């Protein structure tokens, strides 16, 4: 029997049949790179190919970063006489098929961009009413990932059904080509996309555009999710805190093949501290957002590399159970900054093999001691402490404890050639998914994915840690009970 999700949109009641997208793609959140927040319209064949080689050279490809996504400004300003796109020949002299083929030869996948409007956000030809031609072009160019924006939509928005139909038209056109492509909606969270995005796409943007700020408010990010949850003008310049608070009510809508997209990663762009960047990366992994690096890889520094190459955090993103963490605790009674902002949060999520992720997030203006009892960590399995996990003992593992050192990261970035880099990776015994997938590594309890044991929690006990200002503690909990108890918990999580 098909599932009907009833969407109430303003004064109109619309029924849309929703089935989770099942194109076999993005069964765990996509990992890759997108140029927008580092180069904007300064795009070229050299940029894409140079970046792709850096993904290989820095070992990021071998940690799962496989999508190289070219954003706006790649096209000519006019379509050809048949209504098809024309790539800018000055920027891409060998054409898009050449770019895709080169990426494929390097073991990478190619992503491109358009908007579900008359124009793209930068004013180039959009795909609204040109879905068939544009999908044919994408397929002919061997594109693997398609980001579809929301600018200049000719007023075809304002209800869930209107936006659904506009985005479904491109989804149908992509499917008609016969080429598998990850379909990524960039609809800014408008028109309740979290209730229908999974029926046609592999991911959907759930808020306005992020920017490189941890908590700072900005008038351009106009929605206040607590006072106006139906806001339809989400805007831009949304802080990490805004995005997290906005997604918290429907983080559970993600599922294998269909993900809440929290926007491109800001790590390495500047504007945030090292601790803020670590928290940012960990939360994106925990909530199961696609992780597309947003910084310019040509100028990557050691601290940035050692954040985004942490296999213990990436294993959270790529966990085969594919269940997003949820916010289970929030405290607003903490020291505020000059903008009157400050809070702490606890996020908790099921992992494969009966493990549990817990993130203690401090967005207060001072160091805080954050504590959370097991009954809250496992509240989704039963309130009031009735969850079975509340009655067993747990080991606590710190997932940042084995972060690559600055010295080793600098050795990789400064290596004279591939042989020298490979020597560093071999000495470090660094994780490589081409040798051992995250799924198999987690099954084997590979220590490179487990973190470092730092403590234990007795049955019905409490997890507590001191967390620096604007930072997060990220823990994997592992049961220490007998194998039969652990298996019962794992089975419950997998149902």
TrEMBL record:
SUPFAM superfamilies: (Trans)glycosidases, Glycosyl hydrolase domain. GO terms for cellular component: extracellular region. It catalyses: Hydrolysis of terminal, non-reducing alpha-D-galactose residues in alpha-D-galactosides, including galactose oligosaccharides, galactomannans and galactolipids. GO terms for molecular function: alpha-galactosidase activity. Keywords: Disulfide bond, Glycoprotein, Glycosidase, Hydrolase, Secreted, Signal. Pfam families: Melibiase_2, Melibiase_C. The keyword Cytoplasm does not apply. One of its GO terms (biological process) is melibiose catabolic process. Residues 342-406 form the Alpha galactosidase C-terminal domain. It is found in: Secreted. Its EC number is 3.2.1.22. Residues 1-15 form the signal peptide. Hydrolyzes a variety of simple alpha-D-galactoside as well as more complex molecules such as oligosaccharides and polysaccharides. Belongs to the glycosyl hydrolase 27 family. This is Alpha-galactosidase.
């Amino acid at each position: 029997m098909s599932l009907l999700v009833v969407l109430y949109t303003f004064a109109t009641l619309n029924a849309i049949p929703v089935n989770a997208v099942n194109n076999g793609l993005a069964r765990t959140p996509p990992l890759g790179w997108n140029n927008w927040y580092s180069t904007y319209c300064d795009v070229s064949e050299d940029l894409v190919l140079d970046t792709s080689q850096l993904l290989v050279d820095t070992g990021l490809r071998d940690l799962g970063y496989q999508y190289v996504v070219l954003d706006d400004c790649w096209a000519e300003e006019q379509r050809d006489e048949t209504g098809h796109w024309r790539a800018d020949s000055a920027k891409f002299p060998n054409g898009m098929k050449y770019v895709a083929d080169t990426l494929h030869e390097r073991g990478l996948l190619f992503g491109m961009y358009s908007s579900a409007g008359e124009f793209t956000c930068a004013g180039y030809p959009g795909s609204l009413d040109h879905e068939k031609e544009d999908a044919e072009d994408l397929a002919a160019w061997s594109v693997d990932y398609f980001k579809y924006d929301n600018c200049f939509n000719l007023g075809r928005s304002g209800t869930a059904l209107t936006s659904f139909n506009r985005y479904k038209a491109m989804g149908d056109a992509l499917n008609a080509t016969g080429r598998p492509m990850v379909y990524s909606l960039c609809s800014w969270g408008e028109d309740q996309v979290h209730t229908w995005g999974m029926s046609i796409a592999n991911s959907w943007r759930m808020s306005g555009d992020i920017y490189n700020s941890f908590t700072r408010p900005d008038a351009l990010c106009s929605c206040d999710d607590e006072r106006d949850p139906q806001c339809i003008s989400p805007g831009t310049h949304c802080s990490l805190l805004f995005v997290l608070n906005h997604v918290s009510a429907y983080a559970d809508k993600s599922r294998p093949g269909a993900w809440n997209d929290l926007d491109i990663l800001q790590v390495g762009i500047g504007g945030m501290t090292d601790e803020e960047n670590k928290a940012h990366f960990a939360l994106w992994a925990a909530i199961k957002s696609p992780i597309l690096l947003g910084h310019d890889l040509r100028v990557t520094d050691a601290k940035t590399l050692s954040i985004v190459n942490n296999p213990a955090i990436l294993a959270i993103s790529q966990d085969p159970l594919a269940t997003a963490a949820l916010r289970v605790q929030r405290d607003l009674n903490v020291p505020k900054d000059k903008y009157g902002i400050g809070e702490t949060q606890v996020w908790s999520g099921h992992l494969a093999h009966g493990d549990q992720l817990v993130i203690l997030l401090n967005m207060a203006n001072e160091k805080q001691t954050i504590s959370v009892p097991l009954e809250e960590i496992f509240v989704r399995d039963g309130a009031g402490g009735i969850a079975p996990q509340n009655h067993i003992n747990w080991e606590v593992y710190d997932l940042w404890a084995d972060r690559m050192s600055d010295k080793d990261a600098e050795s990789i970035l400064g290596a004279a050639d591939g042989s020298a880099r490979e020597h560093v990776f071999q000495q470090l015994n660094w994780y490589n998914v081409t040798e051992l997938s995250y799924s198999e590594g987690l099954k084997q309890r590979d220590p490179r994915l487990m973190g470092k044991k730092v403590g234990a929690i007795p049955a019905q006990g409490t997890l507590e840690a001191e967390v620096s200002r604007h930072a997060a503690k990220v823990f994997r909990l592992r049961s220490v009970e007998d194998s039969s108890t652990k298996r019962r918990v794992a089975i419950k999580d997998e149902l």
